[in-house]
Amino acid sequence: MYFRLNPECYLIRGKKLGAIFDLIDHKIYALNELETEIVTSCEKNNSIQGERKFLNELKQLCLGNFYSNRSYIQKLRVGSPTIEKQSDPPELHRAFIEINNSCNRNCWFCGHNGIKRSLGCMGCNKWNENGRPLSIERWKEVIDELKDLNCMDIFITGGDLTLEWDRTIDILDYTNRKFTNIYITLHRQSLSIDKINELAGKANMIIQTEDFNDVQSLDTASLLVTRPENFENIEGIQGKNIMVDFIIERGNLLPKDLPITSKKKIQPGSMYQFFNNIEYHPCLGHTLAICFNGNVIPCPMMRGHSFGNVSNKELYAVLKSEWERIDNFWELNLDKIEKCCSCEFRYSCADCRSLEESLTGKLDGKMLCNYDPSEGKWS
Ligand code: SF4
Ligand code: SF4
Ligand code: SF4
To answer: Where is the Radical SAM core domain positioned along the sequence (predicted)?
Structure first.
């Protein structure tokens, strides 16, 4: 008698343990050591010995089935990595455009102060960087170039975008109907009812605030910037419309349950996400950011890596000439990250490369995780 996992169920092995990923029900089953060995042996088409009770449980969960003969199970796949890799121009799914770098506030956690944030890319930042801001005409050309590259999602950020409101609206109007999703980030204190009304129907707003009361009263998506020490007070509020941006300092004593270090960072996603994560970094893959001065970087917070500048050059030309370097970021899947490479959860785990790089000093370093894959234990 033999037992095989169903086509939609993948066994992913770590150094010590394994996990079954059910790509249809979007569930992950973490296995203990014995269970890992049993499923590994079954997936190698070895006949089953005395493990029926456990395998019956897998069958009850619709994860696999018994076979009287050795069987070849064609695993479910979506997309074609070969075709994707050959695609020219490469598939750009998401772009951040930072259309200004000015703000009259001076939040202590802002990018120019070098503070590390877990979701700084969703918020606003100003930077101590040189270079002439792109003109509105050039931004419109860049938007067309992004459209030509089939970019789907666009995030419009600053600075305080309300300081040059007419310009912001002009650029926003220009993006209209060119992308599947358009997001714009604004600070809570810059907003008025008039501005909210003006944005309605044009973009999805992400409102940054440090005030816990704001996020409860806002109807739009909000980004709550806070210290990890406050996690206990806000634990219940995270949801569809509220993202929490943790400020991470080297000396922070991080609460055990923090979503960016605990089991909560493992997110059973769609099968597209699973296959994407086998090939690409879960966040940096298919993503680029264009800074206020035209610099093209891997993401809004990774300021130290520039692929070129679009002030006087088309975006496509930057992609073409720097493709190998860009691809090194896109393909930085968790197989290439220290610690994660030996973890069974590596194709379903969230990872902020920008934050990890700034905390460890290494592009492939990992600090924010309480799991030890070599022992199979959460601390
Ligand atoms: S409002 Fe945003 S851009 Fe302005 S200082 Fe604060 S974090 Fe920086
Ligand atoms: S961060 Fe890495 S080691 Fe930790 S759970 Fe995720 S994939 Fe595993
Ligand atoms: S790596 Fe991803 S999550 Fe982290 S700052 Fe960059 S875009 Fe945001």
So the answer is: 98-198
